[in-house]
């Protein structure tokens, strides 16, 4: 009897559970069927945007250049000898003609005394022969011989003096010295280096541009130069020379600009960027670089337009537009073709978009859009 009651209870519990599970399944199926009948669309994507306007840009030609001194040499010895005196310090500014180094000239000075004695004797003989010739006691040939000996003695003295002078090394031009490369007592051969010397003001900047730009280059054109390590300074100069030949390997023409460098901040060998400022301004459609979607198949932007969904309801959507880019300036990029003035373009958030995607503008914080940005940490 107990066993039959227990069995009935178990069956009753199982039946109740089956009813509950069946009801849950029934309501879930109805819910899913209801969702299937609904038309779902993703929420609008938050982006920033701006209306494209024409701007007047001063066009420039950009190039990478190298600083070169107007005069730059490594001062070297002309004759061999032992260093007797050093009269300069590394890194100092010197003037043309200032003495730098003196080699030992004891032997030449002794030779000079001997030559001067011979010159004095030759001069006395010449004076004596001149007197005898006037008295008709001596022949003209004797006088001519004495005159030649006097000139030869004078030339010997001048030669030794020139040798002594050549052993005193002087600065060939005004400039800044480099690191000293000699020591006292050192034996120098002819041509051994003494010290580098560079004139730094004014200074040259050499750079190359494609041959297609040759028509835009003229002597007197303005050039603006910036150097790594001097981010807050721009040096301005003018084109002083355009090479007469085009490099056959690169089809580039070499251009040389001359810049004032009173603070001597530009040094020979420095890497710089050079911008040749063209004389006429041009109208461009400028966008912040964040608006451009760069891709191998073509650069593009998203243009905001009024669109309709399948049910005919209007919404703000985007159209992907391929564009052709021009020069860049600061945070901005010039668009040559693909968009028109007055069109609204997405400036940030474009990486989340697809054609015809719905958007929601949030222009409280726009991306940087300056032609001459100043970084916060500069």
Structure description:
The chain is an alpha+beta fold and 378 residues long. Among the domains are: 45-59 and 282-361, Beta Barrel (conserved putative lor/sdh protein from methanococcus maripaludis s2 fold), CATH 2.40.420.20; 105-166, Helix Hairpins, CATH 1.10.287; 202-275, Efflux pump adaptor protein, beta barrel domain (Elongation Factor Tu (Ef-tu), domain 3), CATH 2.40.30.170. The chain is built from three helices and 23 strands. It has helices at 2-37, 106-134, 140-166; strands at residues 45-51, 54-57, 60-69, 72-76, 81-86, 93-94, 99-103, 168-170, 175-177, 187-188, 193-198, 203-210, 222-227, 230-246, 252-259, 271-277, 282-288, 300-308, 314-322, 324-329, 332-337, 344-348, 359-361. The chain is elongated, with a radius of gyration of 44 Å. The N and C termini lie far apart (95 Å).
- The ordered H/E elements are HEEEEEEEHHEEEEEEEEEEEEEEEE
CATH architectural label of the domain at 45-59 and 282-361 = Beta Barrel
> Would you identify the regions where 5 or more consecutive residues have pLDDT less than 50?
none
Rg over CA atoms: 44 Å
Shape: elongated
* Terminal Cα span: 95 Å
CATH topology of the domain at 45-59 and 282-361, by name, is conserved putative lor/sdh protein from methanococcus maripaludis s2 fold
Helix content: 10-25%
How big a fraction of the residues is strand?
35-45%
- Strand numbers in spatial order across the main sheet: 3-12-15-14-13-16
Q: Give average pLDDT, whole number.
A: 84
**Number of separate helices:** 3
The secondary structure category is alpha+beta
- The beta-strand count equals 23
Please describe the biggest sheet, giving its number of strands, its sense, and whether it closes into a barrel: 6 strands, antiparallel, barrel
User: What is the CATH top level name of the domain at 45-59 and 282-361?
Assistant: Mainly Beta
């Amino acid at each position: 009897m107990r066993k039959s009651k227990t069995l009935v209870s178990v069956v009753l519990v199982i039946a109740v559970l089956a009813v509950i599970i069946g009801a849950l399944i029934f309501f879930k199926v109805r819910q899913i069927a209801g969702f299937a009948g609904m038309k779902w669309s993703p929420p609008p994507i938050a982006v920033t945007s701006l209306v494209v306007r024409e701007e007047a840009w001063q066009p420039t030609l950009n190039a990478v250049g190298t600083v070169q001194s107007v005069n730059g040499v490594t001062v070297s010895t002309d004759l061999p000898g032992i260093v007797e005196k050093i009269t300069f310090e590394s890194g100092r500014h010197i003037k043309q003609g200032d003495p730098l180094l003196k080699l030992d000239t004891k032997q030449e000075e002794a030779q000079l005394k001997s030559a001067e004695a011979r010159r004095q004797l030759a001069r006395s003989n010449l004076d004596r022969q001149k007197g005898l010739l006037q008295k008709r006691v001596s022949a003209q040939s004797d006088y001519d011989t004495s005159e030649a000996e006097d000139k030869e003695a004078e030339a010997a003295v001048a030669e030794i003096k020139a040798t002594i002078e050549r052993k005193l090394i002087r600065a060939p031009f005004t400039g800044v010295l480099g690191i000293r490369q000699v020591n006292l007592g050192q034996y120098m051969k002819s041509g051994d280096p003494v010290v580098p010397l560079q004139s730094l003001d004014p200074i040259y900047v050499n750079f190359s541009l494609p041959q297609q730009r040759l028509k835009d280059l003229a002597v007197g054109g303005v050039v603006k130069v910036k150097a790594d390590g001097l981010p807050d300074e721009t040096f301005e100069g003018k084109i002083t020379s355009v090479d007469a030949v085009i490099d056959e390997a690169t089809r580039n023409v070499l251009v040389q600009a001359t810049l004032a460098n009173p603070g001597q901040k530009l040094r020979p060998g420095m890497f710089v960027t050079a911008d040749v400022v063209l004389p006429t301004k041009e109208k461009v459609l400028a966008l912040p670089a964040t608006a451009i979607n760069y891709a191998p198949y073509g650069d593009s932007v998203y243009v905001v337009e009024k669109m309709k969904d399948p049910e005919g309801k209007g919404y703000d959507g985007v159209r992907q537009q391929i564009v052709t880019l021009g020069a860049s300036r600061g945070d901005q990029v010039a668009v040559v073709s693909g968009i028109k003035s007055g069109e609204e373009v997405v400036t940030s958030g474009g990486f989340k978009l697809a054609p015809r995607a719905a958007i929601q503008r949030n222009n409280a914080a726009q991306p940087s859009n300056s032609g001459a940005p100043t970084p916060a940490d500069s």
